[in-house]
Amino acid sequence: MGGQKPAWLEALYLQKFFSPCSIHDAAKKNEKNICCLDCCNSICPHCVLSHRSHRLLQIRRYVYHEVVRLEDLEKLMDCSNIQAYTINAAKVLFIKKRPQNRQLKGSANYCTSCDRSLQEPFIHCSLGCKVEFVLKQYYDLSPLLRVCKTLQLGPDFFIPQDIGDDETPHSTVVDSSDEPLSSSSGSSGSDNMSFSCTGFVRKKRSGLYVCGRLANKITEEDMGTSMSRRKRVPHRSPLC
Question: Which InterPro entries does UniProt cross-reference here (predicted)?
């Protein structure tokens, strides 16, 4: 392979992540946050089923930059001397270089490519900086690359279900909770109602809780049914 970068590494640099997926543009949670290393393309969670037999690398965001888990990237190449950062108890590496002027005094440890201040003993601040350094010094990336035939997403990765807005169940019945509910703000109209639930009213013998302001919408039929369930005044038998 020599001084050429592998195709999957080029995809990490060139593909655009966290943009809406054009294939699933009408679906929710359609941000492209996965890189298919076999197709060398960015995909969204809805595309996973079509690529389930491919090597998939999840892309995350940290301070507005793309990062990958160190555990995943180490299966693909040697990541030594790259400074890692911790997000949600997982160590991650930046994909692209982040240039910075040397402004910190007293720090003698800087990135080999972008002059970013680093902790000892690291000499690269990102994957891109290490790749650039190795190609400039040794003209060959092959000693760093590792054979990886399978790479799956972590067990905590959420794959949303494809449910349209019309199929999403809507209900005014609310589980008992201490927190008030409120709808999202929107334009006023007869079909759009904005309200805040400040309390709950329990319907007798039903076990259901209804939003306080919605309790006014109980029909007369419901009231009649509720009244019919009340016990009548008992009649005593005459004394002999």
Answer: PLATZ
Q: Where are the alpha helices (DSSP H) in 138-229?
A: 220-228
> What distances in angstroms separate CA 100 from CA 11, 12, 116, 133, one per listed residue?
24, 22, 5, 17
- pTM, two decimals, is 0.64
Nearest by Cα to 3 from 192, 199, 139, 189: 139
Q: How far apart are CA 77 and CA 202, in angstroms?
A: 61
Query: In Å, how far are 34, 80, 111, 154, 155 from 158, measured between CA atoms?
Result: 12, 30, 35, 9, 8
* C-alpha span between 28 and 31 (Å, rounded): 9
- Exposure string over 90-120, b if 16+ CB within 10 A, otherwise e: bebbbbebeeeeeeeeeeeebbbbbebbbee
Q: Which of 4, 50, 39, 43 lies closest to 22 in space, CA to CA?
A: 43
